[in-house]
User: What shape does this take?
Amino acid sequence: MVTLGKPLTVARAIEQLTTLSGQSVDFLSAICVIEPGGRIHSHVEPTTVTFRALEIDEIEQYVALDQPLDCAGGIRSEGLGFHLIEQVESKDPSALIGLPLIALSKILRSLGINPLNN
Assistant: This one.
């Protein structure tokens, strides 16, 4: 297993996307809610992303345009990054951008908190 974090530099973003080209990759997003009494509610949501086979020039163009230096794997999926993706598989589409909102809503409701109320 290879762990890819946020690239932080243009060179590292290009390197990460070159590695991911044509591959299926699992991204993990987690949520943790701690009650005042200390009880912990947590959830990890996997998302599988399949990248298209990418040419180096389109990787360089993408990184220059979207600047995904603070994004895991060097891709900003909520931006232009979707042009690099062939397929996304997840029970919670919000998980890929960093916060599994379906899981958060479920945890809050289990605590008697209605997310639709103020």
Summary: The first strand starts at residue 24 and ends at 34.
